[in-house]
Every structure is written in C-alpha cells, then in structure tokens.
Batch of 2 targets.
Target 1
Amino acid sequence: MTTTPPAPGSLTFTAPRRQKPPRHLADLDPAARAAAVGELGEKPFRARQLSVHYFDRLVDDPAAMTDLPARSRDLLVEKLLPTLVTPVRQLECDRGTTIKTVWRLFDGAQVESVLMRYPDRVTVCVSSQAGCGMNCPFCATGQAGLTRNMSTGEIVEQVLAAARSVSRGEVPGGRPGAADRIGNVVFMGMGEPMANYNAVIGAVRRLTDPVPDGLGLSARGVTVSTVGLVPAIDRLAGEGIPVTLALSLHAPDDELRDELVPINTRWKVTEALDAARRYFDATGRRVSIEYALIRDMNDQVHRADLLGRLLTERGKGWVHVNPIPLNPTPGSKWTASDPRVQDAFVRRLIAHGVPTTVRDTRGREIDGACGQLAAATP
Ligand code: SAH
C-alpha cells in the first residue's frame, strides 16, 4: 500500500476506499453492544460484562474474564475484541516518561501515538487517520499524504493500550501517590480529526462516557485539534460534549496561511476564527490557537500584532495562544525561530491581553513531537 506524496497545496478530503477494520466493542454504543451480543446468541447482559473488562478493569487477557463461561468468552472475544493495533516499535525519551509507539493496523497501515507522563497527569496523543490529506508543508505527516481513515475502535485502542501500560506501573515519572490513569487525550497525532468526523466523535464518546460504557474521562481533558474545517467545527460545537478545541492557525493573514495551511484556500483566517469563537460560545471552553513559530516566516512582531487584534476583536477570555517552536522534519527548509524572536512574539501577544504560553514539545529526539509523526506505510 503506497500513497504518492501530494502536490504542493493540494487537499485530500476523501480517504481512499479500503477494506474496513474488524468490528470492535469500542466502535459501538451500549445499545449496539447489547444488540451485537444478542446476535451472537448470548445474553444481552454479557455486553455490560465485556464493557467492564474493557473500559473499567482494562483487561486484555481473555483468561482474566472469569465471570464469562469459557465458550461465551471465546466467541465474544473473537467477535467483539479483535486485535486492532499491534506494536511495531517503541521509542522512549525524557527518562522513559515520553513513549512513542508505532502501531500496525489490520491492513498493514502504520500510525503512531505518544504517551507523555508528567508528575500529576498523563496525556496520550493519538492518531485519527493513517497519514493526512491536509498537506501542511512543515508537517511530516502532511507530506506523506492520506492512506486511510481510522475506525473508532482503532482510535480508542491507542488510548486503552496506554491506559493499560500506565495502570500496570510501566511508565515512570508520576509523583508518588499520583493516579495511574490517563487524564488527557489529544487528537494531535497523525491525521486531521475533523476530516474523519464520525469515527472521531465516536471515539470522543467512548472516552468520555462514564465507566463502564466508556473510559470516563472529563470532556475538558480531551482536545480535538484541527486545521480549521469550519462546518465540522460547528458540528462539534453542537454535540453537547465540551471537549477542548485547538485551531492550528500558524499565520494571521491569508496570504501566508494559504501557503502554510492549505485548507485556508477553502476557509479563510477570519472564517476559522469566527468558527472558533462560536465554539467557545456553544461550549464555554476556551479555544487554543496553535502557532508553530517558523524562523522568518511567521514570527514577525507585526504578525503578533495582527493576531492579537484579530483575537481581541472577537472578545476577551475566549481564547489563548500556544506558540510551538517548529520541530524539524526531514527535507524541510524551515527551522524554529530564534528564542529572542519567540520571546518578542509572545510578549506582543500578551501586551494585547491574549493569554499566551509556549507549548513544551516533548519527544523531539524520537521524532515524536508535533508534526514529526510519519510512520512508513508498506
Ligand atoms: N491535523 C490536525 C491535528 C494534528 S495536530 C491539526 O493540524 O491541528 C499537530 C499539531 O502540530 C498541529 O497544530 C500542527 O500544525 C502542529 N505541527 C505540525 N508540524 C509541526 C512542526 N514541524 N513543528 C511544530 N508543530 C507542528
């Protein structure tokens, strides 16, 4: 399965048609789980038992499901808990507290997820597509093109794998007494989550539904990051799940953003920002503006001024900016801004009254930082 690199500026919205991943418990809401179990000739209450094993006890060894009779267990595990993701490689840095995993999917496509443990919280960065069709020239994933959409189960399994490994005590770095649980999931791995809307919203529901229907995460702990697919942002605002929205802006003017974030040729800076503001109005969640600082491209003080004006024109208290020093990607001619230039950019935004915090970028040494994920696809 190969994907040809996209021509500069081209966008791919529709993933190539491929065989679907096997159905998984995590694809289904509770009613659909009961129905699926019934179709297999089992009592509907087995659906809840399976959900408890999967989402609450984080069991992945069928032998541990001792409340299920052996025959039912084999059938239910085969039909509803198929293996969706298989680790190919794990790379660690930050003394084992940042772990990137390359996963192989059922059809050979590969994706990556990154687990980051901090003293008081654990964050997993997940992929929502194999590859990406949005073609941002500074992002390694964008340069590879779109292989296919991931299923809800494939997305959720990245989080569950991380949750199991944290709960088994395999990930160092927590403060003594800190919970061995995932608190944050960010859709900032490979792919454009809003271009795979249905699977992503399914995953968001599984992550935020209370245990044992789902993993029981707080919606505010889930961040969906997008290049700015305006209709999908509005749709997300109407779901009634107040996840955090991150908008990858990277430039405040259309001329530069057309080049850096090609979706801008469809939805302009002001349209993306208006949608972000509507998202805040609908959910009360402060929106994050992502801004990779690229030396001599988008890091000028006049751009900080323009960004500050565009944000404050739309009100106060609804948004904050996360500048990120550009992470290096293979073959790219761009590099991160000079630290003094970065400071000046940040100070100017703060002078406009816009809360601004430079994002720490973990995982650079293992190509696990923002924009560096590019698992080879066979
Ligand atoms: N497609 C979505 C989800 C990916 S999130 C989106 O773009 O928002 C990955 C984040 O890292 C985005 O904000 C992206 O713009 C940013 N990014 C991509 N390449 C980067 C790089 N080389 N250095 C720093 N950030 C980068």
Target 2
Amino acid sequence: MRVQVCIIGGGPSGLLLSQLLHLQGIDTVVLEKYSRDHVLGRIRAGVLERGFAELMREAQCGERMDREGEIHNGFHIAHDGVLHHVDLHKYSHGNSVTVYGQTELTRDLYEARDRLGGKLVHNAADVSLHDLASDAPHVTYRDGGREVRIDCDYVVGADGFHGVSRKSIPKDVLREYEKVYPFGWLGVLSRTKPVSPELIYVKHDRGFALCSMRSQVLSRYYIQVPLTDKPDDWSDEAFWSELRRRMPLEVAARLITGPSIEKSIAPLRSFVAEPMSYGRLFLAGDAAHIVPPTGARGLNTAASDVYYLYHAMVARYRTGDGSGLNAYSQKALARVWKAQRFSWWMTMLLHRFPDRIEYEDRLQQTEMSYLFSSETALRLLAENYVGLPF
Ligand code: APR
Ligand code: PHB
C-alpha cells in the first residue's frame, strides 16, 4: 500500500489528524495495535479547551460534543474546608472549557473516519518504522501471519507513551525529561448525579481529591493514594468515606454515592521527549509528552500538536512549503513545556507529598492563600486552564 501520511496509533491524536488531513485531500492510513472496543474501553479525562473544541468542529466531528458537552465557566478549589471559586469566564476574557468525555470524543472520531471511508487498520501487530532519515520511509506491520508494507511520504507517531514511534528515534538524538510523582490517583466512575455542577479540586491534609463528571448522571471522582495501593484494596464504601473526609462539610453532606462502574489507579508522571521529529517522523500527543492529570492538559496538549502538524502538512502538500514541518518540533515543544509547567504547578499546589519538609508545607499554604488574594494570580491560573493560544 502507498499513502501520503502513515499514522501510527488510533487514539484521539491519530484519529483527529487523519480526519483533518483527509478533509484537505491528503491520503492517510491509521495503524492501531488494538481493537476498537479495546480503545473505546479506556476511561480518561474529559475537559476540553476551546482550541480543541474548534479543531473537532473543523474536523466535522463536533456535533455531538456541542449537543451533549457541558460548557463550564469556572471550577472550585477547596482547602481548609472552604470552597473557593475560580471564575474562568471572568479571568480569561470570557473563555470557558467543555466537559465531554474522551471516550465519547474518540467514538465520534471513529464514526467520522468511517463516514468518510478513512483507512484504519485495527489489531496491527509488530508495527515497525523504517528508513525515517531517507526521503522514502516505510512502515511494516503483521496482519495474522502476513507482513504488510506501507510506503509513505511521512510517518506520524501518535501511538501514546508506550508506543513504538518514539523508540524508533536513535538514542543519541533523543533526549527525555521525566518526573515521577510519589503517589497515584484512585478514580471511580459512578452512575450518580455529580456533587457539584462545576469541578472541585480539593487540597487536604489526607491528600488531594477531585470531583468531576461525564454528564449530569455520571460522576467521576478521584482521591490521591500511595503508589503501593491496588484498586482491590479499596471497597466502594472505603472510597466514598475517604472522599467525604477530604471534602468541605457542606459538599460532603450532598454527596450522592452508588456502586462504582469503574475503579482504577493512575500513577502521576511528567515526561517530555525532544525533539518531536526525526527525518520523516513526527511525534504527536502522548507519544512525545505526558502530564499528570491535575491541570487537565493531556488531551489538550495533544490537540495543539495536531493543530501544528495539520497546518504544516497542508502547507507542504498545497505549496511545497516544508518550513512548517521543519519548525514543527520547536513550535510544538514551546507550548508543550508551558503545559508541563502548569500541570506541575497545579500538582505541587494541591497534593500531599509524603517526603515534604515543613518549609515546603508553609510554601504550599502561602501559594494557596496568594492565589485567592490576587486577581493577577487567578488570571494566570484561568489563562492556563482554558488553554494558551495555539
Ligand atoms: N502500534 C500501533 N498502535 C499503537 C502502538 C503500536 N506499537 N502502541 C500504542 N498504540 C496505540 C494505542 O493502543 C492507542 O490507541 O496508539 C494509541 C495512542 O492513543 P493515546 O494513548 O490515547 O494517545 P493520544 O492519541 O496521543 O491521546 C492523547 O491525552 O488525555 C490524554 O493520555 C490521554 O490518551 C490521551 C492523550
Ligand atoms: C476527569 O474528569 O477525569 C478529570 C477532570 C479534570 C482533571 C483530571 C481528570 O484535571
């Protein structure tokens, strides 16, 4: 098979890029390691910044998001039993975020690819990338016992943190930066009405907690737990009781609980790989960078990569101008690092660090009281939470 762009990974990054390029007449194939059901079984965050929502509309995938997604003009931060409101609308020039689950968004992207007859291979085993430094790269994968070869102009590595694409960049070219946090988030999904119409991030002596949602009948809650904990260590009752203890009293009093329909623990990690391109390979999304979920930046940072890559590819194919592709890594990384900074800042602000010293505790308290005593500080928070411009 021959295509213009071979995309590895059928997560949000790969699917969105392939849909956008297809609409501009650029031929792509998406190679996904797992089945569609497997990809759609993953539960991930669901806060979209405006730039992401606009990209979904441009990709003709925004209809259900606009109908079912909820616009949030603010969120809360609770600490010392007090609920503080962060007015995103007021502090970010009328901006807001859309709460719409990543699973639903991925489903919409798959449906859009199907509608246009997009080429998508599931269960593509042993994907490997070849001749990336040449003008004629190719990709191979195994389909049952048969090896399939795809010749292309460009390869996009959108295969997530554990994918093969980043690993195809020679070790002496690639530089990796990583910070692993000494705790995880235990998340529970339940068919209950959310405790609050807006998200609540909780800083508490017992550890961080988050009250989020997928809809008005589906809630998503998290509590910070030690990395040694396993989901089975936590009965539903133990989870709800710990969550209640960390919430302000007035919030705990209105919490509606129910059986968990999903329970999992996610470790928190910050990671960046540089550069994000090598020869004819371009990395996008989790393949190149990971953030802890605290600032809801993961999916949104993937979206800015897709935006830059999409425009650079269109310029290359329309006018032969390859300067956007040459500048891609530098441009994408500039925004990636800002998202890293923000996610790190929110993580440091809100969590209990097991090995902290008293001095750091006092700094954390000061950071929090400063935040709610300064409009400038709130503006900084809001500007980053709704997403910096692409
Ligand atoms: N070959 C083909 N596909 C692969 C391979 C491989 N060797 N390795 C992984 N994949 C697939 C995964 O199965 C997954 O479906 O690549 C896809 C990558 O998707 P994601 O991990 O979702 O990454 P991305 O599309 O960049 O999405 C951005 O933002 O909110 C965050 O982490 C969250 O997934 C989210 C991300
Ligand atoms: C979620 O709803 O899963 C969620 C929301 C906001 C975050 C992280 C996760 O910052």
